[in-house]
Amino acid sequence: MLTGPRVYRVDWVLGTDRLRGFCFCGTSYDAEDPIELWAWLLAHPDSHGGTGPTEPEPADPPSGTVRDRQPVPA
Amino acid sequence: MTAFVRDQWYVAAYSREVGRELLGRTILGEPIVFYRTGDGEAVGLADRCVHRRFPLSESRLDGDTIVCGYHGFTYDSGGSCVFVPGQQRIPRTARVAAYPVVEQDSFVWVWIGDRAKADPALIPRAPWLADPNYTTVSGMEPLNARYMLLVDNLMDLSHETYLHGGYIGTPEVAETPIQTEVDEDSGIVYVSRHMDDAACPPFYAKSTGIEGRITRWQDIEYHPPCLYLLHSRIAPQGVYPPAEGPDDQAFHVEVVYAITPSTENTTYDFWAVARDFALDDEEVSRFLHSNNHTVVMQDVTALNLLEQVLVKEADGYQELSINIDTGGLAARRILKRMAERSRPEGAVTS
Predict the structure, then answer these.
(1) Whose CB has fewer CB within 10 Å in chain A, the N or C terminal residue?
(2) Is the domain of B114 the same as that of B165?
(3) Which keywords label this protein (chain B) (predicted)?
């Protein structure tokens, strides 16, 4: 997980064919085409945002990650 | 075709390859000869005698100097000519370029570009390769394909299911959604694929001894242009890292690739597999080396074939990108940007 002030994140929405992109400015966008999505993200601040980096929202972990882990039996 | 990214460190060789024999490598189109001085220092010099361009890598070492195999021009480890045949005066221009060279994490790194910018602190790390808590198998395969094809290949591991089935690929790799991140400032691309319940491919079943299904995590960390890391975590299905303390119920494999362009259509494919289990088990080492070499050669065969196809295509050939390509597209963009920024002023591109 990257933690810099200007991190773009793209999640593949679970159970769908959609991608959801999160700009570091805090806005998001859905697309079914990664090229379209990158074009939108990289157009910051022209297509969205307009301010500098904001505190990024906590990222959902990749699918398959379990956050509330149970103790593992030895 | 993506241009080369200059003003960067590249892996030229493993440290074990550089010794008292001359080693010739072409990095980003620049022929370089490597050797090790009597004091153990790795040296990289331009691999062309200034006299008639004879390859110094096809010449011989005399102490710490290279004696050109054609007419005897002799160069010290700094690239200065210290002897020319038949005369006392050594021409002022009789020298070859000396490249900045750093040995780190079992690799010999060489700087290609403006020497004044060669900061060793910029070299990305792969510490497992020289860590006694890991055991590493490694190799290098020359690839007859442009480096971008290897970047594409490694950034999208869904191909494991189809190209490497029976080795490291299982159906879940292609079926599991990915998360992609790009740090716009550092240029690092991160691609995560966390498989909660997956078949255990032979590569891991035989090396770890796990029987049954697994929780398999693949976290790619690409440091463009040269270093690619795949943090691979394998555990019995449902076993996750503890909230605190070491993740000692899982097996960890750090897969490291160094992607070094040689020419426009050839690439050095350095690969290494470092593990934190069965450290002294020679049989596991032999198995992982043999298996990973097979996997690398499957990629080499496929990418060599793809290069032959692409080289005959007109510029701007049509591609189709889908969700699995999200990370690869990010890597392409960053490499393109880096190449544009590193282009010498006044350079003309096609």
Answers:
(1) C
(2) no
(3) 2Fe-2S, Iron, Iron-sulfur, Metal-binding, Monooxygenase, Oxidoreductase
Q: Which residues of chain A does B321 touch, with a Cβ-Cβ cutoff of 8 Å?
A: 33-35
Counting residues of chain A whose pLDDT is more than 90, the rounded percentage is 50
pLDDT score for A57: 54
- With cut-offs at 50, 70 and 90, classify the pLDDT of residue A50: low
Q: What is the pLDDT of residue A45?
A: 87
Q: What percent of chain A has pLDDT over 70?
A: 66
- Which residue range forms the structural domain that includes residue B108? 8-121
Question: Domain tally for chain B?
Answer: 2
Contacts for B268 with CB less than 8 Å, ≥ 6 apart: B11, B25, B140, B142, B143, B258, B259, B260, B261, B262
CB contact (8 A) between residue B181 and residue A10: yes
> Is residue B154 located within the same domain as residue B95?
no
This prediction has a pTM of: 0.91
- Please report, for the domain that includes residue B277, its CATH number: 3.90.380.10
Task: Calculate mean pLDDT across residues B172-180.
Answer: 91
B336 within a domain of the structure (yes/no): yes
**CA of B177 vs chain A CAs: smallest distance (Å):** 6
- pLDDT score at B317: 81
Residue A19 to chain B, least CA–CA distance (Å) = 7
Do the Cβ atoms of B289 and B281 come closer than 8 Å? no
Q: Which residues of B touch A17 (CB under 8 A)?
A: 323
Residue B167 and residue B313 share a domain: yes
| Shared domain check, B286 and B262 | yes
Q: Complex ipTM, two decimals?
A: 0.86
Residues of B in contact with A64 (CB under 8 A): 176, 193-196, 215, 217
Q: Would you list which residues of chain B are within 8 Å, Cβ to Cβ, of chain A?
A: 176-186, 188, 190, 192-196, 215, 217, 239-243, 249, 321-323, 325-326, 329-330, 333
Widest CA span in chain A: 54
Q: Do B194 and A62 touch (CB under 8 A)?
A: yes
DSSP notation for B4-64: P--SEEEEEEEGGG-SSS-EEEEETTEEEEEEE-TTS-EEEEESS-TTT---GGGSEEETT
**Is the residue at B347 inside a domain?**
no
Task: Identify whether residues B139 and B203 lie together within a single domain.
Answer: yes
pLDDT in tens, A2-21: 888 999 999 999 889 999 99
Average pLDDT, integer, range B24-41: 98
